[in-house]
Amino acid sequence: MCAMVLPLLMAVSVVADTYISNQTYVAPTIPPKGPPNKPPPPPWQEHVAIAVETLHRRGNEIALTNKTIEVPVGLVYRNSSVLRRVSALYLLDNTAVTCIPYLSEMPTGPHGNPFTVGHPAVLSADTPVTVGNILCTHAGQ
Length: 141
What we know:
The protein is mainly β. It has a domain of 92 residues: Crystallins (Gamma-B Crystallin, domain 1, Sandwich). The protein contains no helices and 7 strands. A hairpin with a 2-residue loop joins strand 1 and strand 2. It starts with 46 loop residues before the first strand and ends with a strand. 19% of the residues are buried. Keywords: Signal.
């Protein structure tokens, strides 16, 4: 037979004097954990993701491929290798941004329809279009 020895636990209570006052309790301010809220990035650092749908023809067959690009908000984006055979452009994030695909290298003159999240710019269903640049801005700017 084994004898077990258990430590003796003692409960200690401390009763403090209670002071009742008519003053309002002010909770202590505790600093938040983690980094403070950051302001939005400056326009030259903000980017949106755009899916570029590219059209390829091989005889009577049409093939579509997609490539996702990062486009700065507020600046003109040019990339002739990605934008030379475009059939549609899809804005993938940031519902506060509108983008316009221009045919020339300057953001003026003929352009495709502005596109936003959920509303792509369909440029062509059967003939690829060369887009000169894309300009994305915040709605209303």
